[in-house]
Design brief:
The complex is a heterodimer.
Chain A: E1 2-6, H1 10-22, E2 26-30, H2 33-41, E3 48-52, H3 60-69, E4 77-82, H4 87-95, E5 100-103, H5 108-140, H6 150-167, E6 172-178, H7 181-188, H8 190-207, E7 213-216, E8 221-226, H9 234-246, E9 261-267, H10 276-292, E10 298-300, E11 320-321
Parallel strand pairs in A: 1-2, 1-3, 3-4, 4-5, 9-10
Antiparallel strand pairs in A: 6-8, 6-9, 7-8, 10-11
Chain B: H1 24-30, H2 35-61, H3 65-81, H4 85-99, H5 103-132
Helix pairs in contact in B: 2-3, 2-5, 3-4, 4-5
The chains are: A alpha/beta, B mainly alpha.
Chain lengths: 324, 133
């Protein structure tokens, strides 16, 4: 573990370095407070710091105070070393943010034991952060497929449509629904059904780019958002996605199963001035068409006529066939 | 027939015996007998202590007790680190005298400190030499 030693007395610094190095620490040593602060504000800073109180540039207490003021960084465990002995000064050090305080001359074994106590605190912090990140993930992702959950993917859709309007780019909205999913569950059981959904999520993720998004929209429905997509290639991309599902059977715990999806597509550029919900609605209509056309196919929503107001629903038209 | 020897052999004093002014054994134990490292530390001590001592002497002449206090403080720290406890005490006394503005005591203590430091010099040199082997 990295440890910062800030001590202006050269002999003291050498002896501390040697002792800590022997104890297995990676020692970064400086001889004044300004350098100490710089080391603590760098990337991947040491999380343990031994600061002498009296130092040139900034003293140990000031360094503590300044680091504690930047609360959005990972925790640094500070031990102040000083020849100052009065209770008042010890209290001052602790109130400035030091975690512990040793008066010189200190016992080396005691110092190392206190450092180990500091490491336990840091471990605690690591566990907490891990738990928080895990909960954050669970709150935003679908448990079965690890895709974005419905709430999040809908919000992302709103954001991306807004952005594409601003940047004058095209966002392609795709709703994908597993064909005859109910019969998979009925015939082979829900666990097999889960296997199908997991494999589908995997194939969808692999078919899109790193800046595209895939979310679980419903029980067997998935929303794919293609950002900055060339409108001309949208039908081909949708078809690729459909093919990635249909071309090979899905491995499941029962047996390999052929699976297909129906895909409804809507392009943001075909519906200028329409809300994200509207565009999603168009994709949904197109999905309905795809189901009606026999499933395992892609349908793209027709663009809105340019003279229709956003609130005026254009007459329901059959969606176009995707070129294969 | 050979005469019996008439001289007695005088054992050289082992350089490892710790003089009262310097707890060398304790220091070595703390350093886990790392003689090479001890040598490094002592070389730093030699240089830095001479510098601090000279600056204190210059400061006494111009009656700058603040500087005397600071240099005495530095010397005290160095000596305590190296377990030169008796000498460290002298440095501490000088620091206190200077802090209290006592020019007379300071002037008296500084040469004592200097003398005590030079008394340790042979042993310091010996340790440095031994570290180099």
């Amino acid at each position: 573990m990295k440890i910062l030693v800030a001590e202006d007395d050269r002999l003291s610094r050498m002896m501390l370095e040697k002792s800590l190095d022997k104890a297995g620490y990676e020692v970064i040593s400086v001889n004044n407070g300004a350098l100490a602060l710089a080391a603590l504000e760098a990337d991947d800073p040491p999380r343990l710091a031994l600061l002498d109180w009296v130092m040139p540039e900034k003293d140990g207490v000031e360094v503590c105070r300044e680091v504690r003021a930047h609360r959005n960084r990972a925790y640094t465990y500070f031990i102040l070393l000083s020849s100052k002995e009065s209770k008042k000064e010890i209290v001052q050090g602790l109130e400035a943010g030091a975690d512990d305080y040793l008066t010189k001359p200190y016992d080396e074994e005691e110092l190392k034991a206190r450092l180990r106590a500091g490491e336990r605190i840091l471990e605690l912090e690591d566990h907490l952060v891990e738990a928080r990140e895990s909960m954050r993930f669970q709150a935003t992702h679908d448990a079965l497929t690890s895709l974005w959950n419905r709430g999040v993917i809908e919000e992302l859709l709103g954001r991306e449509i807004q952005r594409s309007r601003r940047e004058k780019s095209c966002t392609v909205v795709m709703l994908c629904d597993v064909d005859h999913f109910k019969s998979v569950n009925d015939e082979f059981g829900h666990s097999t059904g889960d296997d199908v959904l997991r494999e589908l999520a995997r194939r969808l993720r692999n078919s899109v780019r790193s800046y595209d998004m895939v979310g679980r929209f419903g029980g067997e429905e998935f929303l794919v958002i293609l950002n900055k997509c060339d409108p001309g290639s949208a039908p081909a991309r949708a078809e690729n996605i459909r093919l990635s599902v249909a071309k090979k059977p899905f491995p499941t715990r029962s047996k390999p199963l052929p699976v297909t999806i129906s895909v409804g597509v809507a392009l943001s550029t075909d519906f200028e001035g329409h809300s994200a919900d509207d565009v999603l609605g168009k994709a949904d209509n197109a999905l309905y068409e795809a189901k009606g056309a026999g499933r395992n196919c892609v349908r793209v929503a027709h663009p809105a006529p340019t003279n229709s107001a956003p609130n005026e629903a254009p007459p329901r038209e059959p969606a176009s066939l995707a070129t294969s | 027939m050979r005469d019996k020897p008439v001289t007695t052999v005088v054992e050289p004093q082992s350089p490892r015996s710790s003089s009262p002014a310097w707890n060398l054994q304790e220091l070595l134990t703390n350093l886990e007998d790392d003689r090479a490292f001890l040598g490094e530390l002592l070389e730093v001590y030699l240089r830095d202590s001479q510098t601090s001592l000279q600056e204190a002497k210059d400061a006494i002449v111009r009656k700058d007790l603040t500087v005397v206090e600071r240099r005495a403080h530095t010397l005290k720290g160095m000596m305590r680190n190296l377990m030169m406890n008796a000498v460290a005490q002298l440095a501490s006394d000088l620091e206190t005298a200077a802090r209290e503005g006592n020019a007379d005591d300071s002037s008296r203590l500084l040469p004592q400190l200097e003398r005590a430091m030079s008394e340790l010099l042979p042993e310091v040199d010996a340790q440095i030499a031994e570290a180099r082997t």
